[in-house]
Write a structure and sequence with these properties.
The complex is a heterodimer of chains A (42) and B (104). Chain A contains 1 helix and 2 strands; from the N terminus they run βαβ. By secondary structure, chain A is of the alpha+beta class. Chain A has one domain. Chain A has a two-stranded parallel sheet. In chain A, strand 1, helix 1 and strand 2 form a beta-alpha-beta unit. Chain A is elongated and about 35 Å long. With 104 residues, chain B is mainly α. Chain B is built from 5 helices and 2 strands. The chains are: A alpha+beta (42), B mainly alpha (104). At the A-B interface, strand 1, helix 1 and strand 2 of A face helix 1, strand 1, helix 2 and helix 4 of B.
Chain lengths: 42, 104
């Protein structure tokens, strides 16, 4: 999966990796982040 | 998955189309991963949210997966993800993702 040029929905989890952390990472790979959320499964 | 988030995902797909969209997950909870992956591909398994019966078929990957990690700036990855990856069973997450995609 080449992230460059992709539009990313970043869905994190409160007790693991947050949506914001995912977004920060995938932006460095050339992706555009179009939605960021951090879910709580508990 | 939270019905509110399902609505946001549905609106995002309607706005951008699904051709270039990718869902990147961060959860370490295997049941949670399965639920979210199913929701954005086959539809809401609990049939309560806006994605009930809606098969978006979006590609789903996890930030722990080697293929993604290789594309991310290593310093940012280490700063944002490294400590979480050490604290959870990332191998189980990677295996679960392959299984969810029917790869293993």
């Amino acid at each position: 999966m080449d992230l460059k040029g992709k539009k990313v929905i970043a869905l994190g989890e409160r007790d693991s990796v947050s949506g914001e952390a995912i977004a920060d990472c995938v932006r460095t790979a050339g992706a555009e982040v179009v939605m960021v959320e951090t879910e709580c499964f508990v | 998955m939270d019905p509110e988030n399902q609505g946001l995902i549905k609106a995002t797909v309607e706005r951008y189309g699904s051709d270039d969209l990718v869902v990147v997950l961060g959860a370490a909870d295997l049941e949670g991963l399965e639920m979210v992956a199913e929701t954005v591909t086959e539809g809401d398994p609990s049939y309560v949210g806006p994605l009930a019966g809606v098969q978006l078929g979006l590609p789903v990957v996890h930030i722990f997966e080697d293929d993604l990690r290789a594309q991310v700036d290593p310093a940012i990855y280490e700063d944002q993800i490294g400590f979480v990856e050490l604290a959870v069973d990332s191998d189980a997450v990677k295996a679960a993702m392959k299984k969810l995609r029917g790869e293993g």
